[in-house]
Structures are given as C-alpha cells and as structure tokens.
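Researcher: I'd like a candidate sequence for this fold, 363 residues long. If you have to choose between options at a position, lean toward the conservative one.
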C-alpha cells in the first residue's frame, strides 16, 4: 500500500496536484501572526532550496510535523525559505542552512535548536518543550533488505544492482539517513533488478562483513553492480533525489522522486529517432515500415508498442491524443496496481513522442 501511495502521488503530480504537507510554510506576511503572536510555540526551520543538508532533513522534518499534526492548535512546525525571504533570515541571525529555532509564541527572541537532526532527537526536543506525544501511523513493511554475514555474499554479484548502507545504531547521521533510505527502497520496490539494503555493522552477525568491506565510519554507502562483487563507493549527496539520480544512472532505471517514473521511461532511443521523422513530416507508410524493422532488432517489451501506435495512427489520425486522454483518466482514477501504473506512464511517454509538441505533457 505504501508503494501504491507513492506512485499515485507521483501520477497526481503529472496533473499539477501536490501532496499536502504537514509543515507550515512561513513567509513575511504570516510569520509574526503565526510564530510571535499566536501564543503557540513553534519550531521553525530556516532553509535554502539548494542546500544539501536541507534536502536531507526535509523528509525527517515532514515526518516530525505529521506526528504532531493532531496538535497543530498547540504547537507549530514550520519552515522559512530564507533564500527567497532573506529579510526573515537576517532578522533572526540566520547565517547557515538549515538553522532551526524554537519560538515560545510570546516573544521575538528564539532559542537555537542544537540537537540532532534525526527524528528521535527532534521529537524528544518537542516533547520536552510541550509535553506532547506524537501520534505516528503504523509503519508499512520495510522494503530495505537487512543483510548479515550469511546473506551479504548471496545478495551481491548476482542479477541485481545493490546499494548498501553500512550503519551503526548509535550513529546520528545514520538515524538521519534512515527514513530517506526507507523511502528510497519504496521508490524502487517495483524494480526487480534493484536492491536497497542495509548492514548493521556493529551487529554480531554482520561485523565480519563490515570489516571485509573496510568500513571504518558511518554511514558508509557502497554500490555493487549486477554481476560484480567489487564495490563502487558512493560519495554523493544523501537526499532522496541524489540517490534516485545515482541509481538511474548506474542501473539504467527511470525512477522519479516519490517512486513514479520519469519522462523517458518506456521510450527507446532507436525508435524515437524513427518517430521524429514522422513528426517532422515524413510519410506515415514509409516511417511505419522502418519502425517495424527497427523494433525487430530491439529486445524491449515496448518496441512493439511503437509499431502498434503507428498502426493505430494509420487508421485513426486522432488516436494519439485520444489515447493519451484515456490513459490519463485511468491514472487519475487510481486503484491500480503499481506495475499497471508504471505501464500506463511508460505508454504515455511513448505516445507523447508522436505529438508535434513533445515539450508539453498531454496528461
């Protein structure tokens, strides 16, 4: 269900619908009323969209706000884009990102938050300040594969691309990474050739593996390409988007943040070049024949779909536009299995190649 929720959220984003956030956006026009004069305490994050640490904190902060949303009449969890609203950042002495400050709701003199940026630390801070206990939803089954000394070697070097995080229970950065890692695993849950895994490097049944891999600090993240037991160290950013981009490049997948598919999923470059001849004015019969020959040499399940579309266009000039609307309707209606959502998005991506204006989404 968690995977389906992510995919449907992604599909709705295609139609311009954004998922509601539990974090309150604060701007100059509402800041004083909400934070300084409401009488309610508030935890405020001052962030910048380009800040890597802010991107890493984002899902943790969102989960924090969701846990206290039931008490939004008693405590505020908010954020300020201090890059866009620099005056608010200067007003409260913000010099770096992210900066978190606690306001008591009665004065304009906040307290700097100096604790960890993991969910447990942030939650403990708010509980200490307000005596409120968060309400958390029952966690969905984890898609992260826990590996140990007996399963590690069986999981790498096979038919899967494996991304492994070596962590320790006491590590603050590992705690910050944890919800992002869970989200990443959910994003790739429908990719049978990709495995998102974790090794508790200090567990008795996994210490030997961590030592064999030369792990000396936490978290250490390594990528193992399919068919290889040689690791590629991961040294990039630790946001969901960073990991998704990395895996797409390495594993040849087409996932988007949130678990959906990107605009290239399903498309085949060799056949796209044939379609471009058609949209450029070449004769349908000639190009359709070329597409049939090209598809015969491509081992991809969507190659024949290109040929099918050419056949449909031959019989019905308005087929592409009508089919795009039909598929969009199915996606918007929801209730589909994750694999079906992937298929509809892939076919929609191919259909858009047949439109003269590929830059605009038809969904």
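Model: Candidate sequence:
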């Amino acid at each position: 269900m968690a995977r389906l929720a992510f995919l449907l959220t992604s599909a709705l984003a295609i139609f311009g619908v954004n998922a509601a956030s539990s974090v309150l956006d604060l701007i100059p026009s509402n800041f004083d009323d909400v934070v300084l004069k409401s009488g309610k305490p508030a935890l405020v994050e001052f962030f910048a969209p380009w800040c890597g640490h802010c991107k890493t904190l984002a899902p943790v902060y969102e989960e924090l706000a969701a846990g206290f949303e039931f008490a939004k009449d008693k405590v505020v969890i908010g954020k300020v884009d201090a890059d866009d609203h620099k005056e608010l950042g200067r007003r409260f002495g913000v010099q770096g990102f992210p900066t978190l400050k606690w306001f008591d709701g009665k004065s304009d003199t906040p307290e700097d938050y100096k604790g960890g940026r993991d969910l447990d630390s942030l939650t403990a801070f708010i509980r200490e300040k307000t005596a409120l206990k968060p309400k958390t939803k029952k966690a969905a089954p984890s898609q992260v594969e826990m590996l140990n000394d007996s399963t590690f070697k069986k999981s790498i070097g096979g038919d899967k691309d494996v991304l492994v995080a070596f962590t320790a229970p006491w590590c603050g950065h590992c705690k910050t990474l944890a919800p992002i890692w869970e989200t990443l695993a959910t994003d790739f849950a429908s990719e049978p050739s990709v495995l998102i895994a974790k090794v508790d490097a200090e567990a008795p049944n996994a210490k030997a593996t961590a030592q064999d891999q030369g792990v000396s600090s936490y978290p250490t993240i390594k990528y193992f390409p399919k068919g290889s037991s040689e690791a590629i160290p991961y040294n990039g950013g630790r946001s969901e988007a960073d990991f998704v981009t990395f895996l797409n490049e390495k594993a040849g997948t087409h996932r988007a943040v949130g678990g959906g598919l990107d605009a290239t999923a399903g498309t085949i470059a060799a056949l796209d070049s044939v379609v471009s001849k058609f949209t450029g004015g070449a004769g349908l019969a000639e190009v359709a024949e070329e597409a049939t020959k090209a598809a015969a040499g491509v081992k991809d399940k969507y190659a024949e779909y290109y040929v099918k579309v050419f056949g449909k266009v031959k019989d019905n000039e308005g087929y592409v536009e009508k089919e795009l609307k039909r598929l969009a309707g199915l996606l918007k209606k929801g209730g589909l299995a994750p694999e079906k959502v992937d298929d509809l998005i892939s076919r929609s991506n191919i259909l858009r190649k047949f439109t003269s204006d590929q830059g605009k989404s038809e969904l």
